[in-house]
Amino acid sequence: MNNGLWSYKEINGIHLEITNRCNAGCPMCPRYINSGADLNPNLVETDIKYNDFIKWFDPAFVSQLKKLYACGNYGDPIAAKDTLPIYKYLRENNSNMALVMHTNASARSPEWFYELGLLMNGQRRGDYCVFSVDGLEDTNHLYRRNTNFNKILANMKAFREAGGVAHWDYLAFRHNAHQIDTARQMAKEMGFTTFNVKKTTRWSNYDSAGLGYYVVPDKNSNYLLQQPTDESLRNNNADTLKKIIGIVPNYISNEEFDAMYPSVNGENSDMYREFDPKTGNSIEINFKKIEIACRAIDFKKGGYGYNDEIFVSAEGEVYPCCFLGGEPNRFIGGNSPTLPSIKSDDSFMKMLELYGGRKSIDLHNHSLSSIIESDLYQRLLPRSFELDHNMRSKQCTSCCGKEWNKLDNGELGNPNAEDAKLI
Description:
The protein is an alpha/beta fold.
């Protein structure tokens, strides 16, 4: 790999956001604001078209890929018109690469999912479809709003009948915690490979017992999403961070502690804050003093066995990962759709501005190789990974910090754990 970390010839993974449209209305999704009541005003809904895709990624490039992963920040792949043709094109030009998808499965037909299953039926090459289903018929729709469990069930069965490799992701709430074992058994009976329980950190408030809750507006009355009372179903971000920065004994060296010592001067742009529900206080840490283990550069960290990933947004823009790819459309600091659009102020946005803005990484205007060989990828981003560098992105630290990050402590679950495997 070259000194710039990214190399066009070494890219073997793509995270593709085929669309930023979605049929569901999940309240905690950044696609929505005002607790899920309104569409993010920064979002312009669009899809990647088949003709654009095959122009951007020719057969020679597709042949070097080990994996294409369709999830994204704002949409569901099944909401795009050309998802199936794009997956067929990939399979036709690379019979060995892994095809992966995340979906709520409450759109399309069983026939569509059967065709998808025929394309994603190779467990040894790494194919799988993650079905994000958070409960059963009486509970799944409470978070996955606008979805239909019976339709989801029919689509999952059709996918499995075609031989598709299926994983089940289950986001734990208080209203569905009692159904985890039943859902796990259903997954096993349908021939799913894994059943992964995930623990969200996206609570808007915490009650007197330190348990998170989230108010969701409904047509008739508001209702609450609540954190499970079972401690094993709650994320442990705060506890892990306290150990790392020495708030609780962890037997780290003085040098290690000094390198991560938090500021005591209150508000500081250098600080990352994580709420500790056990104390009701925020834990602060200087995010520039945490080393980076970039998932886009080396996905072996996540057990995926490939490196040099890129993220391609629904607008056709090339980012290192979905964490940075979500920043241009992020809505922060307010909830009302009538307020002016509030943009992310993450340092990555400053880097992008210096390089020429979003059009400079747009595949409609530039080739993938020229984007990857640009100063943004070869100089600015690699330098930002250095300790104490002013260009360090908070997203990079919070998602890919080596000592601590929010994803490895429950947010993603642990699909590789023994207790998640069903076969």
